[in-house]
Amino acid sequence: MRAGLIALQRGDLAAAESNLAAANKLAPRDGRVWVALSQTYWRLHRNGDAEDAAGKAAAFAPEDAVVLQSLAIYYSETNQTLKAAQAQAKYSAKAPENRAARERAGALYFEAGRPLLEQQKFAEALAIFKEGSVRLPGDAQLELALGVAYYGLRRFDEAADAFLRTIGIAPETEQPYGFLGRILDQIPSRLPQVTQRFAEYETTHPASAAAYLLHAKALDAQSLDVEKALHLLEKSIAIDAGDASAHFEMGTVLDRLQRFADAAAEFARRRNSRRRTLPRITVWRVITIVSASTQPHRRSGKNMRNW
After folding, report:
1. Which SS3 state, helix, strand or coil, does residue 12 take?
2. Residue ranges per domain, the chain?
3. Among residues 103, 168, 204, 242, which is most buried (max CB within 10 A)?
4. pTM confidence score
């Protein structure tokens, strides 16, 4: 086996196959031999033999960390991304100190589900992201992806729960706040939790027009403390007077206060302003927003890791 691995490393595939086949005859249930053979066959373009060998490696050594790591590499190279994610997740569970291995597993699960999001096959994407979030609890990217899949399926309560979990893991991530701000009227039972998160976000982002706007929208959605909502909107507009959505929300609050002339003026300002602090979210924009990000709890940036 050692001779075969050395030959494989230096690219002598004939010698690698010969030695590894000999090792396989001596130890036909050795998963490490089988996984090395799978790599050898793959490089020899014997794809069927490679797949068969990888299957035997997984069957004979399902808990061997070396085999799992090698299978993750093999399945990645052969574009079997979900299998790669599953093997990598099992490997990372056996090496909890290896943070990079866990991050790699999360990235693979997302890459497995991303094409399904792009094809708007949200139920299929959901199954992958749910599996990933169970195997890799506390992964903010997978929770955000899970929320997007629920959003696409119009399962708004479950989407809200996933976005709230994302905030709990990575509170500096901007995207889940924006998604929640767009579905407030669909998630009445989640509004107290959402309002608390928005208030915390506002406190930690005193220069953000969006933070004040989101907090105000959450209060207005529950008909709570209209005067406070008005004050928050005044702060938002003071920071960014060109935001149409803030003027619309201000008009709604003023109308609730029966200040009809002031409300009409705000609605007029809204019509004259095309820009939005909270951009309109379509299905395609959902995918684009999520796909353009980087993980803040893993890096210093505010967005999720590159999707």
Report:
1. coil
2. 1-79
3. 103
4. 0.85
